[in-house]
Amino acid sequence: MLLIGQTFAENACLKAIAVARATSCWALADNSGLSVDALGGAPVVHSARYADSDSARIERRLRELSEAGAHSDEERAAHFTAALALANPAGETVLEVEGVCPGQILTERRGEGGFGYDPVFFVPEAGLTFAEMPHSQKAGLGLRGRAFAGLKPKLRELLVNPAG
Description:
Maf protein; five-stranded antiparallel sheet
């Protein structure tokens, strides 16, 4: 039975709990995706299943934004979210964090790197799409880098004070 949560955080927790229970070990899981404001936040937790390929997902996104009349930068606002969840060997979630990278969806692809929506996801802070960024820059500005930056102090606190 496939369980799908309504949020990135719920999905990360479901994954971490399932692995921790199955292995009786600590488990760290993530769930991430894209949310586009003009499309009511879509595709959120369905980002990877929004079409059969990266190219098809991008084409669908661009078509839907055009059909919605989203032409200005503000109308094409979007953000990537990465949720991380840590579960203990008993299958209890002990830590949750989210990293969010704000940006906008361009009208056409730029750059050769990355995957998924990277060629059309523009990060104003960098003046580049994820596909144009060197890996080190994307690692720092990207959703997972931001999520891990939020996890680090919480994980340190958990190690220092395991009883909470």
